[in-house]
FAD-binding domain-containing protein
Amino acid sequence: LEHSVIQRALLARMDELAGQDDPNPLRVLSPAEVRNFEGPGEEYRMGTVHLEDGRQIRSRLVVAGDGGKSMIRSLSGLGTWGWSYDQQAVVATVKTDEIHTTAWQRFLPTGPIALLPIRDGYSSIVWSTTEAHAMELKGISPDEFVAQLNETLSPRRPVPSAPQGHGAVGRRVSFQLKLQHATRYAKSGVALVGDSTHSIHPLAGQGLSLGLGRCHVPRAPLGRRRPWRRPFGRPNLFAKLRKRPKEG
């Protein structure tokens, strides 16, 4: 599924929940940007999220899904380990000469390139390459980009070949390729989900699935919680997330 399709579905569901007749309805604050975060202290057992517009949000539990460069994770003192692959992934959308439902991938000395079908003859490109080549791919014209793409995807021996690109659609962007893993996924009053927990190479296409899986894990302790017995800030509420971060 395209990223925008998933986003629209999630936003529609949030709007639906926000409109329900509930004593504590979901509140959607958008647009909003986090400026600072203060975790729960000894005296005040609620975390405080400071927004750029001056608003403050206090909660006994802050779930950080703010990406690989998570501000909440950093300000909570939850560290990371990992390394850079010294590569960039160039992402683009192209129109192909035929509608196809097969994901194509070639492994090159500079990294893998993938042609992933979306819909109606459009495909997503994820091109892992050197940083210098990534800058070149983003700077050339759409026609030059498609020409390089077709040449790169063409096999050098008699095997089935990928559909040919006919035109690039939209802008080309890139992101740094690295492995990053949080040393812990939770602490008192804070839980990490999504890319704030881990970032991996897009080779296997598992980043989104793993991120969504991390969103699912906190449901178990929250579902068993009894408000009068087990407050959100209790240190061992998310013990499973802290002790076994590779599961789930």
User: Anything to note?
Assistant: Residues 31-79+183-215 form a domain with the FAD/NAD(P)-binding domain fold (CATH 3.50.50.60). DSSP finds seven helices and twelve strands in the chain. The longest strand covers residues 165-182. Residues 244-248 have pLDDT under 50 and may be disordered.
